Amino acid sequence: xxxxxxVDIQNxxxxxxxxxxxxxxxxxxxxxxxxxxxxxxxxTQDWHPAGHSxxxxxxxxxxxxxxxxxxxxxxxxxPDHCVQGSMGAxxxxxxxxxxxxxxxxxxxxxxxxxxxxxxxxDQETTTGLTGYLxxxxxxxxxxxxxxxxxxxxxxxxxxIDEGFNMHxxxxxxxxxDLDGSLDAAWDEMKEKGVNIVTSDDLL
Length: 203
Ligand code: VGL
Ligand code: ZN
Hints:
Layout: E1 2-7, H1 28-35, E2 41-46, E3 67-70, E4 73-76, E5 102-106, H2 129-136, E6 140-146, H3 148-161, E7 165-174, H4 181-192, E8 195-197, H5 199-202
Parallel strand pairs: 1-2, 1-6, 2-5, 6-7, 7-8
Antiparallel strand pairs: 3-4
Helix pairs in contact: 3-4
Bound molecules: pyrazine-2-carboxylic acid (VGL) and zinc ion (ZN).
The site of pyrazine-2-carboxylic acid has 9 residues, from helix 3.
Family: Belongs to the isochorismatase family.
EC number: 3.5.1.19
Keywords: Hydrolase, Metal-binding, Pyridine nucleotide biosynthesis
């Protein structure tokens, strides 16, 4: 069985938001069409407490997009974004969320960031998604959303490791692109075995 995985289409990742992905909002129309052709729809929501460790503002002398060494490795520092309960954390107002059956929130532990929908950035703490998918008999995830080079990429890499067939809808994702991270992400995903499709293939 297949499902649509809609990653982080939230106000803060769209133009005008705190961590805007260029043209992030332009995928919403396509995503809404896809939502209507899938029987299973899963969304993710970046959901940080104020003062989260991934925020540059939580580290003296650091600016957004600097990096810091955490217990679990190198972490990019971001502007404050997707703070629990804020407007920025809400889904884009035009995104159709009516058919969504489960929302996986991530990044809610202050000390660990979480890009992937499967594991937090320590690569150990699980979100529970693998169990949910297995219990529903979902084998194939069609991934759309933001940002290609962070949450989308890590979800796809981990999903493959977890044994799922991971597909990316190339015209329904947008990236941040820090120092070439977008091209690198496509290379990593291809190397790992992602299946690339377009929305036309599905509609
Ligand atoms: C994301 C950076 C920080 C994403 C989330 O959704 O790709 N990127 N938090
Ligand atoms: Zn975040």
